Amino acid sequence: MINLAVEVAGIKVKNPVMTASGTFGFGREYSKFYNLSLLGAIMVKGTTLEPRLGNPPPRLAETPAGLLNCIGLQNPGVDAVIKEEIPWLSQYDVPIIVNISGHSLEEYGEIALRLDGVAGVAGLEINISCPNVKHGGLAFGTEPQMAADVIRTVKDKSKLPIIAKLSPNVTDITEIAKAVEAAGADAISLINTLLGMAIDIKTRRPVLSNIVGGLSGPAVKPVAVRMVWQVARAVKIPIIGMGGIVSAEDAIEFLLAGASAVAVGAGNFYDPLAPLKVIEGIKAWLEQEKIADIRELIGAVKIC
Amino acid sequence: MINLAVEVAGIKVKNPVMTASGTFGFGREYSKFYNLSLLGAIMVKGTTLEPRLGNPPPRLAETPAGLLNCIGLQNPGVDAVIKEEIPWLSQYDVPIIVNISGHSLEEYGEIALRLDGVAGVAGLEINISCPNVKHGGLAFGTEPQMAADVIRTVKDKSKLPIIAKLSPNVTDITEIAKAVEAAGADAISLINTLLGMAIDIKTRRPVLSNIVGGLSGPAVKPVAVRMVWQVARAVKIPIIGMGGIVSAEDAIEFLLAGASAVAVGAGNFYDPLAPLKVIEGIKAWLEQEKIADIRELIGAVKIC
Amino acid sequence: MVRRGRDLLMVYSLKTRILENKKILPDFYEMVLSAPAIAAEAVPGQFLMVKTSPTLVPFLRRPISLSRINAEEGTITLVYQVVGSGTKLMTVMTPGSEIEVVGPLGKGFTWSVKDKVVAIVGGGCGIAPLVALTEELLKAGKEVYALLGAQSRDKLLSDKYFIELGAKVMIATDDGSFGRKGFVTQLLEEVINTTRLDQVYCCGPLPMTKAVVKLTKEALVPCQVSLEERMGCGVGACLGCVCKVRSEEGSLTYKKVCHDGPVFTSSEVIFDD
Amino acid sequence: MVRRGRDLLMVYSLKTRILENKKILPDFYEMVLSAPAIAAEAVPGQFLMVKTSPTLVPFLRRPISLSRINAEEGTITLVYQVVGSGTKLMTVMTPGSEIEVVGPLGKGFTWSVKDKVVAIVGGGCGIAPLVALTEELLKAGKEVYALLGAQSRDKLLSDKYFIELGAKVMIATDDGSFGRKGFVTQLLEEVINTTRLDQVYCCGPLPMTKAVVKLTKEALVPCQVSLEERMGCGVGACLGCVCKVRSEEGSLTYKKVCHDGPVFTSSEVIFDD
Ligand SMILES: Cc1cc2nc3c(=O)[nH]c(=O)nc-3n(C[C@H](O)[C@H](O)[C@H](O)COP(=O)(O)OP(=O)(O)OC[C@H]3O[C@@H](n4cnc5c(N)ncnc54)[C@H](O)[C@@H]3O)c2cc1C
Ligand SMILES: Cc1cc2nc3c(=O)[nH]c(=O)nc-3n(C[C@H](O)[C@H](O)[C@H](O)COP(=O)(O)OP(=O)(O)OC[C@H]3O[C@@H](n4cnc5c(N)ncnc54)[C@H](O)[C@@H]3O)c2cc1C
Ligand SMILES: Cc1cc2nc3c(=O)[nH]c(=O)nc-3n(C[C@H](O)[C@H](O)[C@H](O)COP(=O)(O)O)c2cc1C
Ligand SMILES: Cc1cc2nc3c(=O)[nH]c(=O)nc-3n(C[C@H](O)[C@H](O)[C@H](O)COP(=O)(O)O)c2cc1C
Ligand code: FES
Ligand code: FES
């Protein structure tokens, strides 16, 4: 019997394959394709204190092997998430990780407080990196001190495992990683999207309503793998790796680089069954390689 | 008659399409495909004071819509470049821009000095961003003060137009851009490669000998366009835009974002005739759009 | 095989066999797929997310409407216009090979037993989903005006088929190369002026849709419009494809074209100008 | 048309017509291209950079050797093993369609009038370029030992064709399913022990190449090896494909497999262990 189970930030998952925040809604849509209990964990859409409308369309632009988005954190607000989404999703046997964003430390704290003790919530992923919302994203995640403040604030308000989700748009990712570790983060998610832009040459306008947006998908995978590798050597807390995963091979690359678990984001759009295929592909690969425990792969890249 | 000519850093080019450093050698190889005089300018391989062997193979890894490289600045050294490469390349009617890299300020200064006044050299592109060489790259380009120091040093030693080539691996590209502008740079090239990594899951080793390498190609285009746009609004000096250009449409996107000229890098590998196709495609597009002067496009993205 | 979950499943992610893929007009192709499960459940106005390449480029699937749905034979027909890289790649796919699709997706057109006389208004590739709709409307015994528009004759879809079906076909082309010279909305205006319509169904370019919504609003005829927006997931998860609507309480909000649409009641949609 | 420059041009970037593309062994395909310009100039050991997709993925072209060069008919033949995404995409290309190639590239095999008896040693897909070489060697009147190796019988390339050509064919398979059980290097050892070879040509997996270089060095037989390295440009511009060599002055340096090779004199190459 091959062991696929891992533990991240104290959250036990039956396999290391999660779905990335913002790409999987609150699970309802993909429940029409497969049994969500098959997943390692679900990271739900970025949740804020108040309901948010997000940015006007167009919110998406396709790019080579990737896409730009400027959804702008459209969500029904934390109370509606607690009342309507978590209970529904709790019918599945799968840890729910709520991704949260705030305009201020107080907001982060308040959301964390409201989610603390909510049945079904296994952990909080703290988005300090969303590049879309002027006062809630970029600033927090690009400065170690600010990043640490956010983590300390939510740690204060919640007994849930706290996962800091880092922005890749920084000079030195290890600096931010060390800061959030010191501030008490139980795990680190990376990467969020790279800041990008596309221009429609016919209209001469930016394709996205917000001018710039977040780049994700296979295009960014090499940057994500590099950051996971760098951070894995800089901190002791576990890492959830993401950025361009569409196949089991991609996922294994992240595990070898040092991730304890992975998340499929834009890969869900490429193939709605991608997370399942990743899980099954990892299993098949472990069998083929005669590896009994997936944990043997974590950080097992050979550097000589 | 449509005007394709632009001026960048005082260098007059017959069209805005250059070839990016490190992807075009010293021109010899591609001279077997077409007349190099058709190009706007040629940025030759990164040149250092002493000859360099570069990193051991494997030096390349293909990634989705891109590639990683860790060539490590293999080059014959500035003296050989002056003696053997520049004279050969000077037979063509095309401005030669020499891309230079150093381990220290002194080295940058010394290379600039040796190239000053060399017949055929139209300008220097200062690589403060190459992520491959431990003591010559990353540090200079990721800190505004250091970046400015390099530019000031080469400005001191050379009367040639100085183009600062920036690294995209920074939190705020405009900060670096403003610093090199203040230090006297005549133009800015961006972007150099994004730091990335790939792991071969079969061998469990990094694909590249140097573990990490520089990501380029279409995958990075959205990041490059975004940075060109940001920098164009932050500085007054012209910008040479690059990162993933393979088609005329790509090039026009960079021009609209604010670049005065563009360079084709990895696109040369995708199609050895890519630079010519970009030039011809731009011309055809201008005709179709009834635009008489390419300079109308520079920075013409409409933001409302 | 991927194990299916506990919910009632109505969306499929499948490899389907291509039965036909042929050029029907200079810029348009028709692709017939063997997809019994989808054909059994789909309704007119719904669409598929189509994987156009075996590689990672294009990364996103393309939304293409179901132009015909043949539940008996287990086939569906897509009619697509070649506009960019994705649709171009579709043109070289050969009968016998497979194509990956997700669907049926979205909310389709609806009709009520009370409706007697209806009009469909289609422009460009927007005519495609109206074919399946017209088949159903005629089966349901409605009198159907089919008002079809295109830039020119060689871009006009399915006009003969609408006639065969028994719809009252009226045609307008921008350049006058076929039918009336002008816009399809002028045809609608005439029909509205002469006939009592119970429902109008509209699918086409945004300016056309806006004009149709304005006309039907003035004439107090209920109207359903099919909208387009750039899509990421196509299933309602990414919030990429929203359009502005008036919520029940009257406030402005966003709905997902892929999930709450693509067909909307014209009265709920808010168009920017 | 792109205007050509002043230099003597010997490298082409072309769209070529595919005449044939068929499976010849479970993992191997043979593709025949109409490419008169390339066929006219190419020599055995040279290769093409092949664009395997109409999209941006795979981004890099794939280096594939010229397996046969038919200057009279203006055709070239590629024999490729399906190992990854690029070669997989090549398998679905249909005769009649076009494929973009750059070539002929690199430095091929050489022979001298003085050579009488030579051996080619090929393993796996490394046998491919040795076909064209053997044709030329036989035309030039050499006695050719063709020592061919593969993992198993169903992975052995072109053995019959070498016999037809009139080479002295000897075969080894790792599993003994055909010819001698063992490595092709054992065959070479035997030939070296019984025959005076003037030149050995080697193309195959690295361990094989190393063993052949060792054997020929000990036996003082000149040897040419064709090397593989990951390629970016394929033309010598990117410095991506270097291999370690001893320079004339004896110091260690890098040469470009695509430009200074892929064929090297065995004595100049330095293998890491
Ligand atoms: C619900 C729905 C149903 C549709 N049904 C049909 C149909 O039956 N027949 C048909 O010919 N076309 C239909 N379209 C439009 C079709 O999806 C686009 O023409 C197609 O995506 C273009 O892809 P491309 O790669 O050829 O073009 P590109 O321009 O290369 O596409 C680039 C990106 O823009 C998006 N895009 C481009 N045009 C549109 C558009 N009009 N709407 C939404 N996204 C777009 C693409 O999906 C892609 O992400 C429909 C669109 C929607 C939203
Ligand atoms: C000079 C030369 C001549 C060759 N001639 C032939 C031939 O005639 N027949 C044949 O079957 N194969 C030949 N090869 C090997 C062939 O290039 C690779 O098998 C092919 O590139 C694999 O591409 P892929 O997309 O299928 O595999 P992938 O594994 O998906 O390729 C990923 C990347 O690795 C590179 N790569 C993978 N394997 C090799 C390899 N062995 N050598 C160099 N780069 C590699 C690819 O080019 C690509 O950049 C030759 C290689 C070289 C360098
Ligand atoms: C449409 C879309 C919406 C996203 N929304 C969020 C979000 O609300 N919160 C967040 O932390 N990350 C969000 N992300 C980032 C993803 O969770 C993930 O970090 C990123 O996309 C990289 O992974 P991928 O390449 O697999 O998509 C979003 C990404 C996409 C594509
Ligand atoms: C193989 C390779 C070698 C490169 N060498 C250099 C170099 O020597 N100096 C430099 O400034 N940039 C170098 N670059 C970066 C390119 O000049 C360019 O900035 C970058 O690749 C982005 O453009 P692209 O996506 O069009 O390739 C190199 C890039 C590649 C792919
Ligand atoms: S396309 Fe993702 S929500 Fe509609
Ligand atoms: S592949 Fe570029 S130098 Fe050889």
UniProtKB/TrEMBL annotation, chains A, B:
Q: Which UniProt keywords apply?
A: Cytoplasm, Flavoprotein, FMN, NAD, Oxidoreductase, Pyrimidine biosynthesis
UniProt binding sites for substrate: K45, N69, C70, I71, G72, L73, N127, N192, T193
Q: Which GO terms describe its cellular component?
A: cytoplasm
Q: Top EC class per UniProt? A: oxidoreductase
Q: Any idea which positions bind FMN?
A: S21, K45, G46, N99, N127, K165, I191, G217, G243, G244
Q: Which GO terms describe its molecular function?
A: dihydroorotate dehydrogenase (NAD+) activity
- Name the UniProt record assigns to this protein: Dihydroorotate dehydrogenase
UniProtKB/TrEMBL annotation, chains C, D:
Ranges of residues in domain FAD-binding FR-type: 11-111
* Pathway, per record: Pyrimidine metabolism; UMP biosynthesis via de novo pathway; orotate from (S)-dihydroorotate (NAD(+) route): step 1/1
- Write out the residues that bind FAD: R62, P63, I64, S65, V79, Y80, Q81, G86, T87
Bound how, and how many: what does the cofactor note say?
Binds 1 FAD per subunit.
Keyword set for this entry?
2Fe-2S, Electron transport, FAD, Flavoprotein, Iron, Iron-sulfur, Metal-binding, Pyrimidine biosynthesis, Transport
* GO terms, biological process: 'de novo' UMP biosynthetic process
Question: InterPro entries, alphabetically?
Answer: Cyt_c3_hydrogenase_gsu, Dihydroorotate_DH_ele_sf, Dihydroorotate_DH_Fe-S-bd, Dihydroorotate_DHASE_ETsu, FAD-bd_FR_type, FNR_nucleotide-bd, OxRdtase_FAD/NAD-bd, PyrK_electron_transfer
Give the matching Pfam families. DHODB_Fe-S_bind (PF10418), NAD_binding_1 (PF00175)
GO MF terms held by the record? 2 iron, 2 sulfur cluster binding; electron transfer activity; flavin adenine dinucleotide binding; metal ion binding; oxidoreductase activity
Q: Which cofactor does this sequence's record say it needs?
A: FAD; [2Fe-2S] cluster
The residues that the entry says bind [2Fe-2S] cluster are C233, C238, C241, C258
Assigned protein family: Belongs to the PyrK family.
Q: What is annotated about its quaternary structure and interactions? A: Heterotetramer of 2 PyrK and 2 PyrD type B subunits.
Q: What does this protein do?
A: Responsible for channeling the electrons from the oxidation of dihydroorotate from the FMN redox center in the PyrD type B subunit to the ultimate electron acceptor NAD(+).
- Name it: Dihydroorotate dehydrogenase B (NAD(+)), electron transfer subunit
Organism of origin: Thermanaerosceptrum fracticalcis
Q: Which gene name does the record give?
A: pyrK
